[in-house]
Amino acid sequence: MQTIQAINHKILFNDNCYAFLNELLQVNTFSKIFVLVDENTSQYCLPNFLAQLATDVEIEIIELEAGEQFKNIETCAQVWQALIDLGGDRKSIVLNLGGGVITDIGGFIACTFKRGIEFINIPTTLLGMVDAAIGGKNGVDLGVLKNQIGIIREPKAVLVDTSFLDSLPASEMRSGLAEMLKHGLISDKTYWDKFKSLSSLNTEDLNELIHQSVQIKNTIVSEDLTENGIRKALNFGHTLGHAIESYCLENPEKPTLLHGHAVAIGMILESYISKEKGLLSNEEYYEIKYIISEYFDKVDFTKEDINQIIDLLIFDKKNEFGKVQFALLEGIGKIKINEYCDNDLIFKAFEDYK
């Protein structure tokens, strides 16, 4: 797959990843290499990854517990201390080997340690490959509130090795699929149409879909790195999706949802809102609802659940002057940003979802 040029770094795929990485490690004088993993990537991905490295620089492994609940400042403090204890300095480099939690928190840790050291993202989940590792967003949650603390700074590179997907459970693959569906809905109807017959696709087809998804996100980010305009399009499904994810994370009576599952629900809800605001046709809405529902199980929400989810919307990082802002569909393949929506319409969206 062809290398993609981001603003200040490259996104490389499969065999090209390790040739690039080994050359980088050879021509740069890094004092130490730190590989950040969680307990899952330590077991399933780290051995193969280390076998690809050709360097005399000392390598240290830092392992975190797996899960969104550990993407917080407390974990950062532990890793910062580990970096100091293991001799990390401003000439060190961090290799983030993992899913969205690892690349999000690893980038933030690198950006803030010693006022910033180099880092590379090596996503090991589908969600990480097509979304979390792409675009230069690094950060952590504040309690259950998603991505409240962070910084936008691009990595040295992003290395996408799709062989890591072989170790993923189906639920994690679906989580990444949600972001790929989103990229088609907001930017490319032809790309969206490819997901109508996903069961007939082979590995080569999947690699091509991943490459196209990365290209879509990178094109949008390259126009608006700091999210002052069109990058807000990438938040389609996330305004309600993040609130749903946070609510389920803190409510023991609700299933803990993977990010992609929550976003999938958010996309159905926000597609309904788009329809009700006259931006999306009935036919397009029902097509979106049907296809997403094919891949993601329905979750039941009571009236009290919905009230609490709406209360969480105010913490969405896109909000300005206390108003909740949505990115809504203006037909499949086109987006309209900075749209407002009242609570009654949100309730109607949940009723239709049920």
Automatic annotation (TrEMBL):
It is an enzyme of class 4 (lyase). This is 3-dehydroquinate synthase. Its cofactor is NAD(+); Co(2+). CDD domains: DHQS (cd08195). Keywords: Cobalt, Lyase, Metal-binding, NAD, Nucleotide-binding, Zinc. It holds the Pfam family DHQS_C. Catalyzes the conversion of 3-deoxy-D-arabino-heptulosonate 7-phosphate (DAHP) to dehydroquinate (DHQ). Residues 176-319 form the 3-dehydroquinate synthase C-terminal domain. It comes from the Bacteria. Its EC number is 4.2.3.4. Gene3D superfamilies: 3.40.50.1970, Dehydroquinate synthase-like - alpha domain. Residues 62-174 form the 3-dehydroquinate synthase N-terminal domain.
